[in-house]
Amino acid sequence: MSERSGLKKFLFPRFSRYYILRVAAVAIFAWLFFSYICIPIKIRGISMEPSYKDGSFNLIWRPLYFYRLPNVGDVVGVRLAGRSVMLLKRVVAREGDTVEFRKGKLMVNGKEINEPYLTYPCTWDLAPRKVEKGKVYVVGDNRNMPVRNHVFGQTDVDRIVGVALW
Amino acid sequence: MVKVVKIAIALVSLAVAGFFIYSYFMSDEKKVIKRLVRLSELVSKEGEEPAVIMAGRIRGVGDLFAETCRFSSDARNMSRTFRPDEITSHTASARANFLKLSIKFYDMNVSFPGDKAALVSLTAILSGVTKSEALFDEIHELEVELVHVEKKWLIRRITAVEVLEK
Questions:
Q1: Nearest in space to A45 (alpha carbons), one of A90, A104, A87
Q2: Tell me, what's the pLDDT at B136?
Q3: How far apart are CA A3 and CA A157, in angstroms?
Q4: Which residues fall within 8 angstroms of residue B25, CB to CB, at 6 or more apart?
Q5: Tell me: the pLDDT tens digits for B77-111?
């Protein structure tokens, strides 16, 4: 009787009870991990271009915000009614900050913010507004459209699902 | 021959009984979700459609709404009440502006605050191609209130939730 080689065992496993249990354990762990910890997303739309292109793939990492609030510069997933569909936006201000746009330039607390991730021109003008308690202000990176056509603004921190991993 | 007839009668009786048991036990939550899915199917269009089909769909949309339905949006500072015939009229003219139109609902969370009332929060994605061949893509969180009238769930309020406040 010959011993099966390691490669044969790996490629053609025997369907023993333990093998089935291992497969079930891996499947359950994968489902939990990718449903609640690290959520895969497919990006749809151009509001975050060129940083994140339409049709590209990313992961939303949730544990970072289990113990801290989103920081300015973080690219976050914002949930709507659930987590199947999220908005992907960049945090530009936190609670208490005053946000405005002046001739396309982002101003926070009266100071112009350097945004190296912006590529396309922006001509927005938006009067100053204070970010309320418990909220963050999020905007997309592609501001080459009328201000009314871009979905952005302050949102509850509770709606922030996690941070884009890359 | 008699045996075949008896078997056929038994099978038909089982099918009828199964249908009634399924209808009886189909939960209210599933019925509410089914109504909303039906709304999205009737409003969506793949391309040019015969007038008869279009008329049938539009009539079907009106049948999903209560005597009056309030549409409101905090972001657009808008609140208005419509009758079913007004809703069908607006739906028909809106659909006529699109070559293709798709409305899909995600993350439908149903609750029953009262005996004959249901509240659904959901994410709606509206996408399509206009008559001038421009692409159209919008995403909204909606709160939909339905009321149970004569064994049917009818929509009586749709509110667009402001997720990002400019």
A1: A87
A2: 87
A3: 58
A4: none
A5: 899 999 999 999 999 999 999 999 999 999 999 99
Identify the residue among B126, B162, B166 best suited for mutation to test binding to A, counting A beta carbons within 10 A and taking the highest.
B166
How far from each other are the two terminal CA atoms of chain A, in whole angstroms?
52
Answer whether residue A2 shows pLDDT above 60.
no
Contact B164 A81 (CB under 8 A): no
Q: Are A89 and B164 within 8 A, CB to CB?
A: yes
**pLDDT of res. B70:** 97
pTM here?
Answer: 0.85
CA distance A130 to chain B (A): 10
**Chain A hits for B163, Cβ within 8 Å:** 78, 80, 87, 155, 159
Among the listed residues A99, A45, A80, the one whose alpha carbon sits nearest the alpha carbon of residue A161: A80
pLDDT band at B139 (very low <50, low <70, confident <90, very high): very high
